[in-house]
Amino acid sequence: MRKVLAYSILLVIGLGFSQALPAIAGDAHDAVANTVRVLTMIGLAFIMIHVGFEFHIDKNNLRRYGWDYVVAFTAASFPWILVTGYFMFAMLPAEAWSDLEAWKETLLAGRFAAPTSAGVLFSMLAAAGLGATWLFRKARVLAIFDDLDTVLLMIPLKMLMVGVAWQLGLIVVLMAVLLAAAYRWLHRATMPVTWRWVLVYAAAIVVASELLYAWSTVVDPSVPIHIEVLLPAFVLGCMARPQTARPDAGAEAVEHALHVVLEQPQERRVATFVSGAFMVLVGMSLPPIFDGPDGEHPAPTPASLHAAAPGSVVDDPTLLGGAEEGRYTGTVTGSQASLGWRAIAMHVLILTVLSNLGKMFPAFCYRREAHWRHRLAVAIGMWPRGEVGAGVLVLSVSYGIGGPVVTVAMLSLALNLALTGVFILIVKRLIDGVPEGSQMAVHRPAVDHLTRAPSGTVS
Fold first, then answer.
1. Is 32 within a domain?
2. CA 372, 377, 378: angle at the middle one, nearest 5?
3. Which of 214, 226, 317, 392 could form a disulfide with 313 if both were Cys (CB 3.0 to 4.6 A apart)?
């Protein structure tokens, strides 16, 4: 558990840097923020490629994955619903309850509570020595589907804000193509899988994502295209087949060949370093919480918006009628009263509890697969949030949403991120001494048969 503690400390250090960065960097803040963004994306891609290496599915039992997707959808939707309701009915005046614009803005701002940080979760679970457990295998499937749902649900939200755009449809098509490729060519593409090559793959994915974004801003700067690096990196890992595997090798032989390569001491050392650096970078990706007049959020520049949201589609607010010259124009912002620190602290605690309660539905599922403590551990394991949630909040600011709602949301995200190590300790304590086979029926889980921690994280 020393690694979990070390990763928690690295997260907090990153959070501290994120708040001090504007003052330290000065005029170079945008350049530094962009560097942090790119490095964060490369680290996330590196981790997700390794997660894909370890991913195997039973194509004869696809119904199981349909249920996994339903469970993941609840994990992405229930926190959003609870947080949005709290924003509307606890933090806004009654006259805003019937305001359609207020609902649209709070629906967008409340989306920060939805996505589980897959990279943070996988790194922490593996650091706790849980990489070979049913919990890890199930959490991996749910977290990937959870983030996929987050991206998909952001598309109709953006349509509410900016209208129907062909770019949003293109994103859906690209995601469908990637998922189809992962299914069709699962571990069939022979390629090098050592850390140097994985780093090259991760950097190439980030470069491709950035080039697509740059091209889309030239075509139509109001709705740029930004594909989550999480999905293409995961798909590449799913398709990868080590060069040492025979052409006619089955799934178990391919998995063994991967293990032989990824279990090498140097591979594990590099994976540990990348995971640790990723923790710092995730913390640094959090935008400034208090840096504006009267303790409000600063009005972000287009460069800093894109830099603070490594996995999100973020638009230039001046193109969309949002924040301009440090002023907020959103309906929600104008209807909020100022809050004292005591009230802010209360809202932060309540919001954090609500957002995590929304992740608890998996605890009531999979009764044929695992003991109730393992199921509860899976639900708690979905609590960590990270860079994607921060990106949603910065996108909210770009549309002119600010004031106490965004401040409380940002502080809740920071608190949840800082508590990640505590969540993983609770998870480990829950399943200690409880065999995975307890209370399991004849049906086996359709997830892959892992026997070790993923090298893309650490063990």
1. yes
2. 100
3. 226
